[in-house]
Amino acid sequence: MIPAILQSLPASQAQRVHFADYQLWSRIEGSIAVKFILKQVSELLLPARSLLPTAETES
After folding, report:
1. pLDDT in tens, 1-59
2. How many angstroms separate the Cα of 44 from the Cα of each of 20, 32, 58?
3. Tell me, what's the pLDDT at 57?
4. Whole-prediction pTM
């Protein structure tokens, strides 16, 4: 549920507000965390890209 203050923002009305895992973003460090953060960003901002086949899914 999005708080009322966020619902009034133009970005929220255009459905361009995304929520990320704050534990991952603020407390975990290192290359593995970076991999998960980049994956999360790509899924939030580029949803169509997540539908493309990757090297892992191609056989």
Report:
1. 677 888 888 888 888 777 777 777 788 788 888 888 888 888 887 765 555 566 555 54
2. 8, 19, 23
3. 53
4. 0.48
Q: Which of 36, 42, 6, 1 is nearest to 21 (CA)?
A: 36
Q: Which residues of 20-44 are buried (b: 16+ CB within 10 A; e: fewer)?
A: eeeeeeeeeeeeeeeeeeeeeeeee
| Residue 11: inside a domain | no
DSSP reduced 3-state for 48: coil
pLDDT at 53: 61
Task: Compute the distance between CA of residue 50 and CA of residue 41 in angstroms, rounded to an integer.
Answer: 11
* Domain contains 8: no
Q: Is residue 7 part of a domain?
A: no
